[in-house]
Amino acid sequence: MRRRQCLLLLSILLSVIVLLSCGEEEKAYPVRTYTMGERITLGHIVYTVYETQWLTQLGAPPDSRIPQNRYFLVRMSAVNGGGQEITVPNLTIEDDTGKSFPELTDGSGVPQHIGYLRRVKPAESVQGHALFDAPPRHYKLKIQDEDNERTAFIDIPLSFTSESPEVPELGDKFKVQPGTQPKKQ
């Protein structure tokens, strides 16, 4: 009888241990979407996206590079907040239908290219433009921590900006044309 009680107690104890070990799963990190300009911390990396730009070519003819769609530059920074050197993962952009476009490896012709292989020492950062070849659309930039365990998105609205030339202020200057009286502009 005593032996049966010991076996029953042992089997109950083993069952409890098995059940407790199965319940210790790591909580899943929620995938959030942030806006441009926000500081996003994933693991030891702090990301910030500042601005975007669409280009029809890189460089000047005849040596210009022409994209399959359009070149999409994302100006950003990634800071290593950890105590060891890390690699900042490569980036992708994803449109509203779920189609994704990977970061291009060749950054030649890109002003301040952030690089494709990004090793960052503690308390240092990489910054510059990441390069994509994609059709103009609304995108979300997919970012990850150094171990590719945590993921977040940065919402990038579709916008085309055009640079307007600086117009000098004329102020109270007078313009005089030959054979006319001075006119105030």
Explain what this protein looks like in three dimensions.
- With 185 residues, the protein is mostly beta strands.
- It has a domain of 124 residues: Immunoglobulin-like (Sandwich).
- The chain has one helix and 13 strands, in the order H-E-E-E-E-E-E-E-E-E-E-E-E-E.
- It has a five-stranded mixed sheet with strand order 1-11-10-6-7, with no helix packed on it.
- A hairpin with a 2-residue loop joins strand 2 and strand 3.
- The longest helix has 21 residues.
- The N and C termini lie far apart (113 Å).
- About 4% of the residues have low confidence.
What are its keywords?
Immunoglobulin-like, mainly beta, 185 residues, 11% helix, four-stranded antiparallel sheet, five-stranded mixed sheet, single chain
